[in-house]
Amino acid sequence: MPKTIVQEFTKGLWQELPPFRLVLGLCPVLGVTTSMENGLGMGIATTFVLVGSNLLISMLRSVIPQKVRIACFIIIIAAFVTIVELLMQAYTYPLYLKLGVFIPLIVVNCIVLGRAEAFAYKNKISSSMADGLGIGIGFTMSLGALGAVRELLGHGSVTVWGDFSYNLLSAFPSFQPFSFMVQAPGAFICLGLMLCLINAIGD
Amino acid sequence: MHSTLKLTVSHAPFWHNGSSISSKSRNILLASLLAVVPGCFQYGMAAVGVVAMSIASAILWELLINFISRRPISVGDGNAALIGMIFAMMLPATTPWWAVVTGTFFAVVIGKEIFGGIGANPFNPAVLAMTIVMLSWADLFDFNSALLNYQFDFNAVFPLVLSKAFGAHAVEPFALTDLLFGKQIGGIGSTYGIGLILGGVYLMFRGYIRWEISVSFLAGIFAAALGFNILNPELYAGPGFHLLTGYTLIGAFFLATEDSSSPVNFIPMLIYGVLGGALTVMIRNIGTHIDGVLYAVLIINLVNPLLDKIRPKAIGKGV
Amino acid sequence: MNDMVKMVVVLTVLSSVAGGVLAAVNKGTASQIEAQQLKFVKGPAINAILDGASNDPIKDRIQIADGAVERSFFVGKFDGKANTIAFEEFGKGFGGDIGVMVGVNIDSDKLVGAAVTVHTETPGLGAKAKDDPSLVSQFKGLPVTDSLTVTKDGGQINAISGATITSRAVCVAVTKAMNTYQKMKPQIQEEIQKVGK
Known about the structure:
The complex is a heterotrimer of chains A (203), B (319) and C (197). By secondary structure, chain A is mainly alpha-helical.
């Protein structure tokens, strides 16, 4: 039974939540989530690439020959990633400095190529857009959540673009930041525990 | 081709000799008391509190994870209590309660239960937990500042810090017999050398720990420290000092010998121990960390599966 | 055969369109990116070197052609007199080019300071060059005629421990900057008069 556009959108938010349900695209998930701000920034950049590449690949799906489809996908994705990189350099330079090499690495993020190959190449433009947007927002939320947990435990406070901030130390003055959490092994353990929690909640 | 070894195999019924996980845990706990009790006398009620907190919270974490994962309650085998005890032995007596509880969480849940419970852990759980809390709250586990408010009748400076910062002659005032009898600061159960040695020897005779690992670990430390000492006696302290300070003795008898993260055959056990000892001295002398035992034990734990590949050829198998 | 032609045509068209779009975006954002870099990367370095200047060095910059390339010199005014400039030079580090902002006092021909701007060095080792002032502070007050090398190479600059290659690269960049300064001093003096007014 074909899914409606709404279903295509919402599946990315829980059923196929990229890092937790599909366990895809773990490199940026582990690498950039040292703070909530970085996680959200990375998620938004990936969402842009996802929606753009899904749209274009779905539009061109009758033109792209079967044999060279992966090469075509990569050209399209790489073009979008470079656009994102330039735009971030132009308008959100501090975030660009923090995310560094992870922005160009969106090209090889398996979520983007995975959606192109498994979905956009076979589906209508509208549902491909909904799929890209849903998966992208799910990815952004996951990165934001993981970043928030790690930043809160590791630094004792969460700050997002200076507008929103919460300080754990004001609620628990004796709390001492658990800096293990913002280090690399903390990323694995934190991801594992969240994966565990989400599997326990189930569908 | 024929082996001359004769094995006698009889029919059932067999008689269980009484050894079990819980008796093993009990015996190791008993042996550790030889070092913990003098430690508690030295540091007073605070140390007793840390030990009790550590054991109790380790048992509670195990109970909790048993409920969550719907597995049979396994606290009865005493392994959780043992992990709590060994973790507490490494802590300074002033450790705050929340650091102890976080540590036992990482030891029991992340270090052991996540991998499938007792016998399945790739690392020694207590060492893993200790490294994590040390990385996170370095100032709490810096023995010099942690034990600042205690009055001792001996030089209350962590010996390894002195040797690291000022070279070998800074630690000359430490007499080896003083170090052996716990006249140094350190973890609750890791300074009273004679207790650790007696406990270790007891466990070796009962067969609960393998003498090959302990002896080769100490031999590795001795050889590596001697080598450094000969190369540059000004800079690097001698082997006796390295054998009796920091976590060396607890490492040799209680940490490196943990069953599921150590090898089972003779040659691998020797390699495992010597490697651990040599790494310890290398980290102490040329690494950035003060004490290398924890990292050395984690690294040899990692090498363990490779070492277990060195094993006798199975009979009847080709190649 | 038809299939083959189609593959070639699609890939070619796709690549050229992508290339064209990227070129357009690159051109469109170039000035904005430069402004951002000035603000976030070079800005702090310039302000650290020309600390206490009465003007805004980023605004008062002069462009002088050095052969084919155009260089930016940031001018700082001290005591009402525009006598200090800062500009960037590069050295080859462990992970790529290292940019070093170098400040020179025109009157005394001495370095007033140096600061690392961009680098791709190993975090914890070479990356210390940017945050740890112990290396760059050694350049302060040296005459521009010196040739700088690290102590390991028989020079006078103490390298950051564990980061000899990075320290060497910083020295190379500073030496290059001093040569550039000596070569271009007449033009600089000429241009700087305009700012002084």
